[in-house]
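Thread: Newbie trying to understand structure tokens

Hi all, I'm a second-year student working on a class project, and my supervisor (Dr. K.) asked me to get a predicted structure for one chain before our next meeting. I've only ever worked with sequences, so writing a 3D structure as a token string is new to me. If someone could post the tokens and maybe explain what I'm looking at, I'd be very grateful. Here's the chain:
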Amino acid sequence: MNKTLRFLLFISIIVLAFNGQAQLVQSYTTENSPLPFNTIRCLETSLSNIWIGTDQGLAKLENGTSWTVFNVTNSGLLDDDIRALKNDGDSVLWVGTVQGGLFKYDGITWSNYTPLNSGLGDFLVRAIDVDNTGGIWVATTEGIYVFDRTSWYSFTSNDGLLSNNITSIGIGESTKYVGTINGGLLYFDADNNYTNHTIINSELPDNSVLDIQIDSSGKVWFISPAAGLILDDGFGGPWNIFNANNSPIESNSLLCMQHGMQDQIYIGTETGGIVTKTSNQYTHLNTENSDLTDNHILCLKYDSNNTLWAGTFNGGLCRISELSHLSESIRKKVTVYPNNVRPGERLNFSEAISGDYFFMSTLGDELKKGELTHSKGLTIPNNLKTGIVFLYLKVGDYNYIKKLLVQ
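---
Reply by user tm_fold:
Sure, no problem. This is what the structure looks like when written as tokens:
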């Protein structure tokens, strides 16, 4: 078999091993697309469009093929540093920036709202949402500002807030949920009277919140920088906590989340890629077991086509499809270590496994195969040459590929 055929065979094995996972991730970067910058801060969907907020402009990807980039040189934007996006129906997009305030774009006209020309109290807009009456809720570092399409009103420390540093907004059926830095969680009722939940008055595990999502049953979930993932199992508690201390989530450094079609929770982490929580099952998608370009996930957006979009810190935009296969292909997490090995040394598994294994070269040559019986590791074959090799493990329905550097 020639090298080309062996290479194609090897790629086919990877596809089969991951039950299609090798086809899951498509990336868009400044190197392979018109994306203006590889740091993605926020995402939004509208019809067949995905809107992408970057540090150097706003991009629109339509039907997965057509790109349009908006910046200070070709649009009504006054700042290219985009931090918040919200679809208002199918024809209006609200855009939050670092120094330019809030923008409204209707497909033709740009309107700008700042402290200089409106009731908005800050130039930095962190989050935007639209309530059930059409009010635009804006999170800033100077408090919460609401635009009812005619007038502005605000909630700040002057109104009793413990912190003006607002991070996130979630709109429920009759309640608006607002997250702060060091100021607890705010629950606004239909009349916009609020209750503040904190560590002291409600045993909230952390007074800071980075993201808010509401599931199909109306329950609210939060991302906390200290406590991890939090579910309000009542209304202001009790709080269910999921993090590295009590679940397969490997770190408490969580940044964002999205709910899937069947209430899967997709969680973006700072160092571990994307964690999927489906009831009590957890899966991990990262740069080691997929084509994900960066494990530092800043934002996530789930669309109606069962597709998850991930904005990364340094790896651009990732489109993750065939999500129904994701939990099947990486149902459990096995850690294989170390990454750098020498012939004759021990390769360790985080748990005892039974199944088949084989080593392959980058050209598809089978170097060694065998069986494992309740083993927590194996010995690196003596015939492996210096360079990259792949270890393939098949344990029941679970398939795993590990890239190793032989020294």
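A couple of things are worth pointing out once you decode it. Helices lie at 3-17, 199-202, 326-329. Residues 23-329 form a domain with the Methylamine Dehydrogenase; Chain H fold (CATH 2.130.10.10). Feel free to ask follow-ups in this thread.
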